[in-house]
Design goal:
By secondary structure, the protein is α+β, with helices and mostly antiparallel strands. It folds into four domains: about 10-55, no CATH class; about 70-170, Nucleic acid-binding proteins (OB fold (Dihydrolipoamide Acetyltransferase, E2P)); about 185-295, OB fold (Dihydrolipoamide Acetyltransferase, E2P) (Beta Barrel), CATH 2.40.50; about 300-444, Nucleic acid-binding proteins (OB fold (Dihydrolipoamide Acetyltransferase, E2P)), CATH 2.40.50. About 20% of the residues lie in helices and about 40% in strands. A five-stranded mixed barrel has the order 2-4-5-7-6. The protein has a five-stranded mixed β-barrel with strand order 8-9-10-12-11. A five-stranded mixed β-barrel has the order 15-20-21-23-22. Strand 9 (about 215-230) and strand 10 form a beta hairpin. It binds zinc ion.
Amino acid sequence: MKEMSMDINNTEEIIAHIREKTGKEDEEVKQLIENKKERFSGLLTDAGAAFMVAKELKLDVNAAESVSENLKINQLEEGMNNVDVAGIVKQIFSPRTFEKEGKKGLLNNLIIADNSGEIRATVWNQDVKKLEELKVEKGSKLRLKNCYVSAYNEKPQINLGFNGEMIVNPSDLTEGFPKIETNEKKIAELREGLSSVDVKARVIRVYEESGFEKDGRKGKVRNFEIGDDTGKIRATAWNDLSEQVGKLDQGDPIKIENGYTKKGLKEEPELHLGWSARIVTAEDEGLPKIEELTDEKIEKKKIADLGEGDKFVEIEGRIIAVQPGKLFYEVCGKCGRKAKQLETGKVCENCGEIEKEDINLVIGVRVDDGSAQIDVAGFGNSAEKIIGLGKEEFKKKEKEEGIEKIFNELEKELVEKKIKTSGYVRKNTFSDQLEFVVKTVKFE
Ligand SMILES: [Zn+2]
């Protein structure tokens, strides 16, 4: 006998089904549905939540495959449900966090196309991670099953539903798609004024984050440097991407999609990663080794063998203590130099009176590798990496929770952790002891 197939958009029908099959009270079923909705940050319809509850109770609520329909992109209209759409990825944006009714969620927008047209598609929460895991990129073909159609800027937009499915490059999708032009450039080919460029490169250096305010809204920005076999370029990442760049390590192979170029400080082109850009992990192939890009041969050493003036050395050991301190110092927001406290107020030796104050993060940890111990100091981006927070995030947390709480949490997190760091050795003028200054850092 054929299983009962129900209207999966009819909440009442599903609830009735659950009651009948499980003997649960109406109240209890409704509570389960409410709990489910809460977990989805308000991004779930009543019917969707009911459907998931029924599935968890192992009830057969077949979303009747015959309901979903394969449609061409130009046939999609707002309000449609359970549609299957196939398209080629024309553009993929970066994941974005959002807040709805006080709950955080994640979304990722794409533009997909077939020969009939193109449409904006949105995937939500756990499906966002799938995009990355399945290596979806410009030119990938996608089949999105069980989508619903909403509207964005008065145009239809498809959304992958909670019971949806995403299939990447299915073998049967061969015809009916436009050709997607990729605009991949070597660094030496980058000139100012280009848009939608893709660049594959290796991360050479990541700088610390800065905050800014524009039109009353707060933003974050971070510079970094990348290189390929033709040259190096300075890059700038804004907002969510600044956070992502902060997590990159020196040497990481990456691909930047949809960047644009502008004239930089020294009249040279600079690569910008705006709201439509994206960074993905790339294959190592075809990229020069990091040593070739930095001209730095890094030598591994035991702590006991370190001497004053050692440069480009790497040590590996365990953190045995976090040095007490306030984790940041005041700087001039204009030039970044350390602020000097005078009786009359804070001044910058470069700009004079400080108009805009900012901070830099700093942290000291004691590292032991079995041969000896040394104090390891991180400033700016290195400190952000060790602390595990970007500067803007740190400021927010410091305001909300206070420095003591951050410090205690950090101590718990860091002590006994294995650390691998490259940098240089100098004598600390206060303690008269050797100190290791971090340039790159990795935890295991
Ligand atoms: Zn200054």
